UniProtKB/TrEMBL annotation:
Organism: Pseudolactococcus laudensis
Keywords: ATP-binding, Cytoplasm, Ligase, Nucleotide-binding, tRNA processing
Domain remarks: The N-terminal region contains the highly conserved SGGXDS motif, predicted to be a P-loop motif involved in ATP binding.
Annotated SUPFAM superfamilies: Adenine nucleotide alpha hydrolases-like (SSF52402), PheT/TilS domain (SSF56037)
Signal peptide residues on this chain, from the entry's feature table: none
Protein name: tRNA(Ile)-lysidine synthase
Keyword Hydrolase appears in the UniProt entry: no
Reactions that this protein is recorded to catalyse: cytidine(34) in tRNA(Ile2) + L-lysine + ATP = lysidine(34) in tRNA(Ile2) + AMP + diphosphate + H(+)
């Protein structure tokens, strides 16, 4: 069986393109992507697909412009739509990757393409595993690549397809491609892994790459079991503390990992993660900013992460809101009304008992998030905490004609 016949067999059995007719090929111009393009172009009628091509000119080599122009001319001759972007900004592997995929997504959305196809192959799996190990990635990030996964925003219905994961580079047969001379240089970690580290390991054990691929597959299977065991928490915005406490501790570890992963912009160090797990398991409530953008909250019943911009805010007025959707606190007719955050030593009188506000919160098990709500103060006396408690002094003014009433509601 030729490599092309193997490709057709894999694609057919996996039904990669059954739901996709408009396909975008990520084309660098190297051996891998040119082989992928050639095979897809040859099989386009068999697979009932229309091809488009996207190329990123990273502008890191003197021949980059020449290669981009040659690829464009080739696609023009074949009648294949060709989209190109020039990379801008300081270069790094991570920044370049983000730039590529952002561009691919924009092209797909603009031209109604539903599948992005890349030329990742078996050798990439081995390289990625070692790179992630070197960088200290967690277990879930050592699972390799999926042949098919959602791409972009889920609502768009886009897919990323990697049909070459069962191929080694030695099986690729393109004859017209560009050789990137910088691949032989060791300035970047990926090149050092490819040119130095992997050959050294394979010198010790010629089957090293094969064994590593097997380990990746086992990790993927193990993580699938973890995901199945934690499926009840997958869609939860808040994690129920009682249910969480019933899970074995090792599963709790992965449930928390999965939950944090729902916030891609949130970076949590291992030390922070361990501290959060400790906080969840111990008694007591907790409210803390774990980054500039997120709070971690543990109340009596749940723990959850919340964007700080979504923290409760209030609007106040001395005249009623026209909708009638408000709460109110009665205040004396004179004295400056101050709306502020709680300060050390603040006291409040409720049901005839005067106590520190902090003690009132603890005794009445007020949620930590609400303990930060604004206080209404007149003449250094606390008349209430918005959406939490109204002091006795305010209640005594309810039927007094000489008073002011502060109306408030959550900001919308």
């Amino acid at each position: 069986m030729t490599p092309y016949e193997k490709f057709i067999k894999i694609v057919d059995e996996a039904h990669y393109f059954d739901q996709h007719q408009e396909v975008l090929v990520a084309l660098s111009g190297g051996l891998d992507s040119m082989t992928l393009f050639n095979w897809l172009y040859e099989a386009r009628d068999l697979l009932n697909i229309s091809l488009s091509v996207a190329h990123i000119n990273h502008q890191q080599r003197a021949v980059s412009d020449y290669e981009a122009k040659a690829l464009q001319e080739k696609m023009t001759d074949l009648g294949i739509p060709f989209y190109i972007a020039n990379y801008v900004g300081s270069f790094s592997e991570e920044k370049a990757r983000d730039f590529r995929y952002d561009f691919f997504e924009k092209i797909m959305e603009k031209h109604h393409l539903t599948a992005l196809v890349t030329a990742h192959h078996k050798d990439d799996l081995t390289e990625n595993f070692l790179i992630r190990q070197i960088r200290g990635s967690r277990l879930r990030h050592l699972t390799g690549m999926e042949a098919v996964q959602t791409f972009g925003e889920e609502r768009q219905g886009l897919s990323l397809i990697r049909p070459l994961l069962d191929f080694e580079k030695s099986e690729f047969d393109a004859t017209d491609y560009f050789e990137d001379a910088s691949n032989a240089e060791n300035d970047y970690l990926r090149n050092r892994v490819r040119n130095l580290y992997l050959p050294a390991f394979e010198k010790e054990n010629p089957r090293f790459s094969e064994n590593l691929a097997g380990l990746t597959d086992e990790i993927q299977k193990a993580m699938a079991i973890v995901a199945y065991s934690a499926r009840a928490y997958a869609a939860a915005e808040k994690i129920d503390l009682i249910e969480f406490s019933r899970e074995i501790e090792n599963l709790q570890y992965f449930i928390l990992q999965d939950y944090i992963a729902k916030f891609p912009a949130l970076e949590v160090s291992k030390a922070q993660f361990d501290e959060l797990l400790h906080i969840i398991r111990r008694e007591g409530q907790y409210f803390h900013a774990i980054s500039n953008d997120y709070n971690f909250i543990k109340d009596r019943y749940h723990f959850y992460i919340e964007e700080r911009s979504k923290a409760t805010e209030f609007e106040t007025a001395l005249t009623p809101y026209p909708t009638g959707d408000f709460q109110q606190i009665d205040l004396p007719a004179t004295g400056q009304i101050v709306i502020r955050k709680r300060q050390p030593g603040d006291r409040i009188q409720v049901n005839g008992i005067d106590k520190k506000l902090r003690r009132y919160f603890i005794d009445n098990k007020v949620a930590l998030k609400k303990r930060g709500n604004p206080l209404i103060v007149v003449g250094d006396v606390v008349y209430g905490v918005l959406d939490v408690v109204i002091a006795d002094l305010s209640k005594s003014l309810k039927h007094d004609k000489m008073k002011r009433t502060l109306y408030y509601r959550e900001k919308r």
